[in-house]
Amino acid sequence: MKNKVFYFLMLLTVATIVSVPVRVLAQECSGYYMLNNNAEYELINYDKKDKLTGRVHYKVTSVNSSPTKTEANIHSKIYDEKGKLATEGDYTVTCQNGSILIDMRSMMNPGMLAAYKDMDVKMHGDQINYPSTLTAGQKLEDGTFTIDVLDKQSGQALTSIVMNITERIVGDKENINVPAGAYNAYKINQEMEMQTKAMGMSMPATRIQTVEYFVPGVGMVRSESYKNGKLLSYSVLNKLSK
C-alpha cells in the first residue's frame, strides 16, 4: 500500500507541477499560457523502458482577474495506458505579483484515496511558487503536503503521509525535443521525500529526485524521476493549444 500511495503521489505531484507555466514578463498575468481561458495542455507518461503508462490532459475552464491577482480553474483528466479515463478533478492556479502559486492540496487525486473511502481524510499544504524570472543557480521555495487519515467514529489518527519537495535549484538552459516541438528549457532539479506514519509507527522515508525541463511561457516540456541515480519514469509534453 505504501508503494502504491507513493507512486500516485509522485506521479500526480509531478504532473500537476508540470502543467503550470511561467513567462519572463514584467509581472503580467496575461502572459501565462495556462491562464488563458480554454487553453489545453497534454502530457504523456512513460516508464524507464519507454513503455506508455498513461497521459494527463488539462483544460482551463475559467479565468478570474482582479487588480491584484488572476486565478484560473483547471480541469484535469488522467488516462491509463489503454486510454481509459482513470480519474478527473479541478484545481486552481493563481498569478500574483508576477509569480505562479499552486496550492499543493490540488496535487492530490481523490481517486487514489479509494482505500480510505470509509475514513475521514484531511489534506493541507503549502503553495509551490514559480517566480516570473528564472536564472541559473536560483533556489526556489520548498513545499510540503500532508494527508491525515482518521477513523470516522473515534477520530483516532490512523495514517499520516507527508510529502516534502526541497532543494529546488534552477540550472542552465538546454535544448529539448518533445512531441509538441523543440524548446530551450531551464533545467530544474529537486528532491522529493515521502514520510509515512501508520498507527503511530514511522516507516522509512522514501526519496526520489526529479528533473524538470521548464520553458518560460509554456511550462514543463519534460520531467524525469530518479531513485538512487536510476531512472524511474519520465513525462513529455505531447500537445498544447489555446
From TrEMBL:
Ranges of residues in domain DUF3108: 41-237
Name the UniProt record assigns to this protein: DUF3108 domain-containing protein
Keyword Signal: yes
Record keywords, A-Z: Signal
One Pfam family of this chain: DUF3108_like
Keyword Transferase carried by entry: no
Protein's organism: Pontibacter populi
Residues spanning the signal sequence: 1-26
InterPro entries: DUF3108-like
